[in-house]
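PROTOCOL LOG
Step 1. Enter all chains and additional molecules of the complex.
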Amino acid sequence: MIEFKNVTKIFQKNWYAVREINLKIDKGEFVFLVGKSGAGKSTLLRLIYLDIFPDSGEVNVAGFSSHTIKKKEIPFLRRKIGVIFQDFKLLMDKNVYENVAFALEVTNTPRRKIKELVMNALADVGITHKKNSFPYQLSGGEQQKVAIARALVREPFILLADEPTGNIDPAGSEEIIEILKEINTSGTAVLMATHQMELIKKLPRRVVTIDEGRIVEDSDVFH
Amino acid sequence: MFSIREAFIGLRRNGLTAFIAVGVIFFSLLIFGLFLVGTFNLFGIIRIAESKVEIDAYLSDDISLKEVNSLKSKISKIVGVKSVNYLSKERAMEKFKKEMKSAPELLKALETNPLPPSFKISVEEGYNSLEDIKKISNKIRIFEGVEDVQYGEAWIRRLDKLVKILFLFDVVIGLVISFASIFVVSNTIRLTVISRKESIEVMKLVGATDRMVRSPFMLEGVIEGGVGGAVSAGILYGLYVISQKFVSYFFPTNILFGALVIFGIILGYIGSRNAVKTYLVGGEG
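Step 2. Run joint prediction.
Step 3. Record the structure below.
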């Protein structure tokens, strides 16, 4: 599914964003990626959806290798991956429905199919009633739900979540975690980067700890 | 389909940005259009001046009508000659009398008609440079019956120089205005794209191909450029209609509309393509 083989990424001279990373994530897994700010969590996620390429080593994702993938193949890799962020990255000039539909429109999905898929995705995260609202009319938690619906609408094999609860109040955060859990239960792998340890305590799953770009701990079950 | 819909949604939802972009494009192209109108009129005036260039061929006094006719047909055959008009001794005198009305005593002094018969030869467009006139004159000069050929060399030389200076001046101004328009328009469109870079980011994130990302923005740029061009052409036409009451000049309606709209479209296309390109190659994706 996802495999990092000795991956190093250097951003500036002598600044190792991630260093000699070896990591394997299997189908349907739920993995927490923890570490302080700047530890390299986001870099690791960006390497998965090939927003950046490793300087050495290799990343394998769903049959694509960072060594051999062509530039024009990258969009097709991304269609298999859902990504959500701390700042949601919703399009402010589109309403909830359009934001989710957008992910399908850019890949030329037939219109009727889009409606069905979008409504299902909105129902999955429980935000159907806000489908005509614009992002600025929603709370942080609601915006993240829309982002999740957008990530899920194309049925990715993995959902990458980069500090998804960073901008959300505790009640909202719990809701988001609950949704991620459900998504995982239905078979989608989840890789969630966070520095909020209390979330991990509530949900015992595999935890990969990263510090100064290196993996310092990888436990299958949280201790 | 997606691109067209996205382009129009983009224009509608980002109305103010689009409006400003069209406004800036309109203004730049208006100046460009004014320059075009100026150039057309300038060259119109030059053409009229150049068409006034004539060669006078003076014939011998005792030339017969038959010889005149045969000379006329020979001269007409010279490349570059547009028309040949014969002016007999008598007609020349009449003309002279008309011109000298204010000096009747001078006319009285003339006992005989000293004016020779002549041909007034006009040349075709494209043959009014000093060199061409010289060539044609030399060909006429060798015909039997032709005594002398004159063509106002000094005046042609001056006109030639003036045309060259004006042309150079016009080209320089044209280039400056064109570059300024290109710079302003493409940067304005660039700003409209930059204001929506999140949109590009998200498109890339959800797996849109580069073409898919690019096309709505380029279509928007083309629409903004085209509309800006059309509006500026329309305003120029309006100004032309109003100013016609005071001054008359040539207004190349079709060329102007065509040029401004096409120029706007090209600028919109290039501006938006370059702006989106920045973001497509910005990440390594």
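Step 4. Note key features.
The longest strand of chain A covers residues 2-12.
The CA atoms of residues 7 and 21 of chain A lie 5 Å apart.
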